[in-house]
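Following up on my earlier thread - several people asked me to post the actual chain instead of describing it. Fair enough. Here it is, all 308 residues.
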Amino acid sequence: MEFVETNGITVGYDSFGDEVAEAILLISGLGAQMIRWTTPFCGRLAAKGFRVIRFDNRDAGISTHFTHSSTPDFSALASAIAAGRTPDVPYTLYDMVGDAIGLLDALEIGQAHVVGRSMGGMIAQLMSSEYPERILSLTSIMSSTGNPNLPSAAPEIMAMLTKRAPHPFEDEAGFLEHSLAFARRIASPGYPLNEEAHRILVLEETKRAYDPAAFGRQIAAIAATGDIRSRLARIVAPALVVHGIDDPLIPLDCGRDTAISIPGAEFMPVDGMGHDFPSALYPAVADAIDRTARRQHPGVQTTGMTMG
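Reply from S.P.:
Thanks for posting it. Predicted structure:
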C-alpha cells in the first residue's frame, strides 16, 4: 500500500502492471473499500497492457475518514433538497472527484481511463464531464445519474441497506450474517454467490477500517449532489455503461438513463447480473473496458450480453 496527500486528505492506493503504461483508475462504490476490485480482476486488466490503480475513497478503508463531521440529518437533508437549498453535508461527489483527480496529479498521470461501480460510477461520470482533458475513456458499472424520476430499490432492500449491523469485534457471527443477508439479496441470480469468499472479504475490510458512520456520510454526498444528467451531456470520451438486467438495488433503467445521457455511450445490459460483480463476469467486463479504452470515435451503440 502507498499513500498520497491531496485535496486536503490522505488517499491510500496500490497499482498493478507497468507504471509507464496507460492508466486505468478503478473507483469503488458506496461504503466499499478498494479491495472490492479484486486482485484477479486488476491482474486481468493489467495483462491487457494497462497500469491499474485502485484506491480507497474518502471515508473508506485506509484513506482519510471524516470522523470529525457530525452524522448527517437525513430529514433535514431531504427538506433542503426539496426546497432547492444547498444541504449541509460534510462533502459531495464533486469533492470525491477532486480526490481522484488529485491522486492522478500526485502520481503525475496526465490522462487516464476511469472505471467506476455504483457510487464510483457517478464519480467517474463527473470526472469525465468536469475534466474532459484528463479522461481517455469512461466505464460506468451498475450506476445511475441521480435522476429523481428513475425507479428505486424496493423499501425492504433500502431497509436492509441502512440497518445498523452488529459490531464485528463484539459479535462477529452476527456481523457476518447481516452482511451475507444483504449480499444474498442483491446478488446476481445467474451466478451463485461465493459466501465463503464474501466472508473473507468482509473480515478483511473490517481489519483495514471499521467506521459505520462513514456510510451515512457517503449516502449524504450522493443525495446532495443530485441529478447530474446535464453534466453528462458534456462528456466527450468514449463511454461504456455496464448494468445488470437483474439489479435489485439500482434498477436497469438507471443504467439505461446513464447511457442515454452520455453522448455516444455504449450500453451493455448483462443478463443474470445483479448488484455485485461475480468473478465469472471478469473476462467479459475486462474485455469491454479494454475495447472502450481503444475506441477512437464514439458512436451510439447497444450491446446485449447473455451468459450462463
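The chain has a mean pLDDT of 94. That should answer part of your original question.
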